[in-house]
Amino acid sequence: MKVWFNDNLVDSDEAAVSVFDHGLLYGDGVFEGIRIYGGRIFECDAHVERLFLSAKRIRLEIPYTRQQIVDAMNETIVANDLTGGGYIRLVITRGPGSLGLGPFDCHSPSVFVIADQIVLYPKEMYDKGMAVIIAKTVRTSQRMLDPSVKSLNYLNNIMAKIEAGDVGVGEAIMLNEKGFVAECTGDNLFIVESGKVVTPPLSAGILPGITRSLVLRLAGKLGMPAAEENITIERLMGADECFLTGTAAEVISVTKIDDRTISNCEAGPVTKKLHAAFHDYTESNDW
Ligand code: PMP
Prior knowledge:
It is a single chain. The protein has helices at about 20-25, 45-55, 65-80, 125-130, 155-165, 210-220, 235, 270-285; strands spanning about 1-5, 10, 30-35, 40, 85-95, 110-115, 130-135, 170-175, 180-185, 190-195, 195-200, 225-230, 240-245, 250-255, 260. It is an alpha+beta fold. It folds into two domains: about 1-115, D-amino Acid Aminotransferase, Chain A, domain 1; about 125-280, D-amino Acid Aminotransferase, subunit A, domain 2 (D-amino Acid Aminotransferase, Chain A, domain 2, Alpha-Beta Barrel). The strands form two sheets. Strands 7, 8, 9, 10, 11, 12, 13, 14 and 15 form a nine-stranded mixed beta sheet that branches. A hairpin with a 2-residue loop joins strand 3 and strand 4 (about 40). The two termini are about 30 Å apart. The model has no long low-confidence stretch (mean pLDDT about 95). The site of 4'-deoxy-4'-aminopyridoxal-5'-phosphate (PMP) has 14 residues, from helix 6 and strand 13.
C-alpha cells in the first residue's frame, strides 16, 4: 500500500510521523474520513471545506492549497488502484515540536493520506438494524472543544465506544451536557416520528456530518418532512425508527437502544427509503 506523506507517495511501512509530533503527543491536529465511489472522491468539496474550517478553528495552517490536497487524494487513489470504491483518511497534524504542549515551535505540519478498502458493518446489519447503547460518557461541550471541529482528539468518543464494546454492541449514543441526544461516537443520529425525519441541530454539539446533510437533502427530494430539533431520551425511545449516518457507516438502521426494541428489529420503511436513495445517489453520476 502507498501512503501520501508530505508530498511523496511512500510504502505504508515507511510512512511514520516523528515521536515529537504534537498530533501524537497531544491529539493536536485535524482529519477527515472520505469515501471513494466509482474511483471518485465523494462530497469532495464539503470534506475539504470542513478540513480547512477545523484547521482554522484550532489555528493550524495547512501548508497546501485546497487543490493540492485534492490532488494528493487523487494520486493516492490511483497509486492504490482504488478506482472502484474505498475510503480515504486525510490527516494534518501540528507537526514535530518540543515536549511542551505549546504549538509555537511546530513549524512543519505532517500531512498524510491513507486510502484503503473499508467494510464497517456486515451487510445483514443494514437489513436487521444494529443494537446501540446510550453512553454514560457525555459528549464534549461546545464550550470546551466544539465537536464541530474534527480534531485528532477523539478520546471523548473512544470512551463511549469502549462502553459500547463492554456490552457487545457496535455504537453508543452520546448525550450533550443538557441531556439531549447529540450524536454517536462516529455517526450522526436520526429518528422518524409519524413519517417525519428528525435529527439534532448543530447547536446540540455535534459534528456537522456530510452524510447527515446529504440525507436531509434526500429527504427533502423525496417529499418527507424533515427537521432539526432537540431530541430527549424519551423521544428517542418512543421513536418509530432510528438510524445513523456517517461516511463509513453510510445509512444504517438502529433497532435496539439499551433494552428497548425499535421498529420490530427490522429497518423501518422510512430508513429503507433513505438508505436506497443514498445508494442510488452514490451510484449515480449526478455528483
Ligand atoms: N459524528 C462524528 C463524531 C464522526 O466522527 C463522524 C464521522 N466523520 C460523523 C458524525 C459523521 O460525519 P460524516 O457524515 O461527515 O462522515
